[in-house]
Specification:
Layout (H helix, E strand, L loop, with lengths): L3 E2 L8 E2 L18 H13 L2 E8 L7 H14 L4 E5 L7 H5 L7 E3 L2 E3 L1 E4 L2 E5 L15 H13 L6 E7 L6 H9 L4 E6 L3 H16 L3 E13 L6 E2 L6 H9 L3 E7 L1 H9 L11 H18 L2
Parallel strand pairs: 3-9, 3-10, 4-8, 4-9, 10-11, 11-13
Antiparallel strand pairs: 1-2, 5-6, 7-8, 11-12
Helix pairs in contact: 1-4, 2-9, 4-5
Keywords: ATP-binding, Hydrolase, Iron, Iron-sulfur, Metal-binding, Nucleotide-binding
Organism: Desulfovibrio litoralis DSM 11393
GO molecular function, one term: metal ion binding
Length: 300
């Protein structure tokens, strides 16, 4: 296994078994039942977070991370206190989309501080613990489960209005751990309009039903193409599949996000498209999505 050298401010060691495993802030005094002790800490942490959102799909390449980052940034811009938890252990991309890949997390005996993007938005990701960003994480289920739980229990999230969690593709260990650890979490299911994506998303919805997960609604990403020249919409990869899925499944349709060159530019700059000064179709669509998510959460 490749060794992972921690960038936590209080740790000087190298751990090959877990992220920042030798850091004192990632250790808790043990008793006869350390899992129960960690559960108590997790419950205390979650009690200070009003709404927890789980952005998932079941399909890779549908833009979950982009949706996560722009939802969170839009909510933070509205004045809400927001945290992003990136549980894509093997392919974390949130720090890159926010331009904070060079920032590590600082730890103390009280816990670990998430990386601050601005005064209202903070981030935790495996990427922030890696000194070599090209290092592969060669972990199986138990280590991934332990890491996800530590990302909740050992991080000083404080009081948040929203915790937005970005997920990896599929319906594996990370997803099951999140649903079990955060029973009241609300899933935002992302799809693209094509049937190849919808087929996997239907499986993800079946997974959520089986696991008793709560679905806030469906987002159709890459819904048509916003022409950068004339502003008209081109049905490049068709559209409407996500909205139809939501209707047939009896779910709330939260909105459609078109393909927009502005999103690509923003990602390369490490700035959410909703925070670009220039207006764009994608920017307005993400702002509308954030508002619909806020309204849907408050309506529960």
């Amino acid at each position: 296994m490749n060794e992972i050298k921690s960038k936590c401010g209080s740790c000087k060691e190298t751990s090959g078994s877990s992220a920042c495993g030798t850091c004192s802030s990632m250790k808790k005094s043990s008793n006869d039942d350390p899992i129960s002790q960690q559960d108590a800490i997790i419950n205390q942490t979650l009690s200070k977070i009003k709404y927890k959102l789980f952005v998932m799909s079941g399909k890779g390449g549908v833009g979950k991370s982009s949706v996560t980052v722009n939802i969170a940034a839009a909510l933070a811009a509205k004045g809400y206190k927001v945290g992003i938890l990136d549980v894509d252990i093997h392919g974390p991309s949130v720090p890159g989309l926010l331009g904070i890949r060079d920032k590590g997390m600082e730890g103390s005996e009280e816990g670990i501080e998430p990386v601050a993007y601005n005064e209202n938005l903070s981030v935790v990701s495996m990427d922030s613990l890696l000194e070599n960003k090209d290092s592969a994480i060669l972990w199986r289920g138990p280590k991934k489960t332990a890491a996800v739980r530590q990302f909740i229990s050992d991080i000083k999230w404080g009081e948040l209005d929203f915790l937005v969690i970005d997920s990896p593709p599929g319906t594996g260990d990370e997803h099951m751990t999140i649903l079990k650890t955060i029973p009241d979490i609300l899933s935002v299911v992302v799809t693209t309009p094509q049937e190849v994506s919808l087929a996997d998303v239907r499986k993800a919805l079946n997974f959520l039903e089986t696991a008793h997960g709560k679905v806030l609604g469906v987002v159709e990403n890459m819904s048509g193409l916003a022409c950068p020249h004339c502003g008209k919409e081109i049905e490049l990869f068709k559209k409407g599949g996500g909205e139809l899925l939501a209707k047939t499944q009896g779910l709330n349709f939260l909105g459609a996000i078109p393909l927009d060159p502005a999103t690509v530019i923003a990602a390369d700059l490490g700035v959410p498209v909703v925070l670009l000064k220039e207006d764009s179709v994608a920017k307005q669509s993400f702002l509308n999505l954030a508002q619909k998510i806020t309204d849907a959460c408050k309506a529960l």
